[in-house]
Design a protein that fits this description.
By secondary structure, this protein is α/β, with parallel strands linked by helices. It contains 13 helices and nine strands. The radius of gyration is 22 Å and the shape is elongated. The chain starts with a helix and ends with a strand.
């Protein structure tokens, strides 16, 4: 049931949800738990949008009805039946419109613990927003890098470190590092003011506003970091950074020179800095442009061994196993 809850809150396609066995699903106590954990607005602040709730609830009710052995003993619970009726009575927005609308998505860490860490984000599930930015949703490369950072090897990069994220988008990685992985400080940056505004909202949703462990700011690649980004709050000294992270920042070949210029600027300012880039391989030639530019800038590049579990073995930060993602560790020779 916990696995289903995690998939549901991440808005996994209803056809891919892993429902409990039918003999469990028809039990009254199982249906009561599903209602309380999935559909009871009184218990939750950030449930999925109505259209998604309807699709999932319809699938659950259909499965319960098919699992009934004795109609006098087994039935769909009143709570689930009433919830489905209420959703049916409300007009549902078309799928295309729903994809453009922002909704709450909760990502659960890939840990077996019952109270595994969670991050809730307000994001749009469409590929592009009306303004053309891709930063209003969380992409597969971020989910894989987040999975790696929760491993012991990955957490060593984050624990008690000062971090700057490039192309932060929804802020998923920055918030994970600040909220759950023990980062000393995280600066989440993006080149879009619209995206940074939404990022600040996500910082608030995750109760990190005012904690001084995370900030959001506009940073356009190819431009120098301003002094305000480097200053410690309430002090005259500058902050040094230990780690740069970026996910799905290499998809646009025309933006790569500016991206690598920013990486050079950061490594010049902070010679010991490490860079983790997670890249979805949509086009090998575009990725090769990025790797070549790094090589020309005298960076060392290492491909990290980050394994993605098969989909039926994933317990959090769910993403398609068919998605080719590579994680690179980039450093300057010392």
């Amino acid at each position: 049931m916990e696995l289903l809850r995690r998939q549901y809150l991440q808005l996994i396609d209803p056809e891919q949800l892993q429902l409990p066995a039918k003999e469990i699903l028809r039990l009254p106590e199982a249906q009561a738990k599903i209602f309380d954990d999935f559909f009871n607005d009184k218990f939750h602040s950030f449930l999925p949008p109505k259209r998604y709730k309807y699709r999932v609830l319809k699938k659950i009710v259909d499965t319960v009805e098919m699992s009934i052995v004795d109609p006098e003993e087994d039935e769909v619970s009143n709570d689930l039946a009433s919830s489905l009726a209420q959703l049916l009575a409300q007009p549902l927005v078309p799928a295309g419109v729903a994809a453009q609308q922002k909704s709450h998505v909760t990502y659960t860490a890939p840990l077996f613990a019952t109270n595994a860490p969670e991050v809730t984000l307000l994001e749009a599930r469409s590929v592009l927003s009306a303004s053309g930015t891709t930063g209003l949703r969380t992409w597969e490369a971020a989910l894989l890098l987040g999975t790696y950072l929760f491993s012991s090897a990955g957490n060593n990069f984050v624990q008690n470190k000062n971090i700057i994220e490039l192309g932060a988008g929804t802020g998923f990685l920055s918030i994970v590092c600040a909220k759950h992985l023990g980062a000393r400080y995280v600066l989440a940056t993006d080149g879009s003011g619209e995206v940074v505004n939404d990022l600040e909202s996500n910082i608030f949703i995750n109760r990190l506003e005012g904690t001084e462990v995370i900030d959001a700011d506009i940073l356009k690649w190819g431009h120098m970091l301003n002094d305000e980004m480097l200053m410690l709050k309430g002090a005259d000294e500058k902050r040094s950074y230990d780690l740069v992270i970026g996910a799905d920042v290499t998809y646009d070949g025309e933006a790569i020179p500016a991206l690598v210029s920013t990486l050079r600027d950061l490594s010049d300012r902070f010679p010991m800095i490490k860079i983790l880039i997670s890249a979805t391989v949509r086009n090998e030639s575009t990725l090769n442009i990025f790797l070549h530019a790094c090589d020309q800038s005298a960076f060392n590049i290492e491909v990290l061994d980050v394994e993605l579990p098969p989909e039926d073995q994933q317990v959090g930060f769910f993403l398609p196993a068919s998605t080719p993602v590579r994680v690179f560790l980039i450093t300057r020779p010392r």
